[in-house]
Amino acid sequence: MNRVQWLMNLRAVDYEWDDKGRRYQTVRTLLADSSEHDKLSTHHEKVQQNLSTTRAKLHDSELELATLQIKYKEVTKSLYSGHVLNPRDLDNLQKESTSLKSRLEHLENDTLALMSETEELEEQLKESEVVLRAFENTWAVEQVNLTQESNALRSRLHELQEQRDRLRGALGRADLALYDELRAKKGGNAMTQMVANSCQTCHVSVPSRKAYLVEAGEDIVLCEGCGRILYVA
Ligand SMILES: [Zn+2]
């Protein structure tokens, strides 16, 4: 294998390393991200809390209503019993009966409103439960798949690291330094293919003497346009 071929092998490994490394980071981020689940779960809990508060209010309202109904019945009974004869007492009873009736009407309306609010919240809770469980099922499958992918990527990255170390060990220090410098400067791509004496990256022509050296592969020849190491496939 000539110098350029060694560099091409290193480049293939570096490409895969970059690509798989990026994907590995993405997979790790996805695995750690529970924001969507947190959002759905928080919403579900909020509806649950609202429902239990509304149920408690409804319960109190129903108790109060029952108490008032008994009181109203008693007052009405006394009023029409014929036992109370004093006009002032009768007047007071009449006033109390009217006041109780008005309070009863208000309370009945409030109780009805709380009943329909409770029903609405029960519906909301069912819906959010369905959404949350569906998400959790999909999420569980996704987590398994992502964990498998993460493990496969980690083991492949480990292999690539070893290959990389081997290739770098076989290459000369100057060639490596040039390759690393170009890789850093040229967006991760230190090399460019030459086809019919033309650079395939910047399309600048390669002079025929240089093109001959590129074909031979024993020398490192840089493109006069983009400065990358030229190779033939
Ligand atoms: Zn070029």
Name a few traits of the molecule.
single chain, 233 residues, mainly alpha, Helix Hairpins, 2 domains, 5 helices, binds zinc ion
Word description of this protein:
The chain folds into two domains: 138 residues, Orthogonal Bundle (Helix Hairpins), CATH 1.10.287; 58 residues, no CATH class. Helices cover 78% and strands 4% of the residues. It has five helices and three strands; from the N terminus they run ααααββαβ. α1 runs antiparallel to α3 and α2 runs antiparallel to α3. It binds zinc ion. The site of zinc ion has 9 residues, from loops.
Task: Give the SSE map.
Layout: H1 3-32, H2 35-79, H3 87-170, H4 173-185, E1 191-195, E2 198-199, H5 208-216, E3 229-231
Parallel strand pairs: 1-3
Antiparallel strand pairs: 1-2
Bound molecules: zinc ion.
Residues 192, 199, 201-202, 204, 223, 225-226, 228 line the site of zinc ion.
In short:
By secondary structure, this protein is mainly alpha-helical. The chain has helices at 3-32, 35-79, 87-170, 173-185, 208-216, and strands spanning 191-195, 198-199, 229-231.
What does the overall shape look like?
A: rod-shaped
- Tell me about the largest β-sheet: 3 strands, mixed
Query: What's the helix count?
Result: 5
**Spans of at least 5 consecutive residues with low confidence:** none
Helix content: over 70%
Number of spatially distinct domains: 2
Tally of DSSP β-strands: 3
The averaged pLDDT comes out at 96
Strand order of the largest sheet: 2-1-3
Predict the CATH topology of the largest domain.
Helix Hairpins
Give the second-level CATH assignment, the architecture of the largest domain: Orthogonal Bundle
Rounded radius of gyration (Å): 41 Å
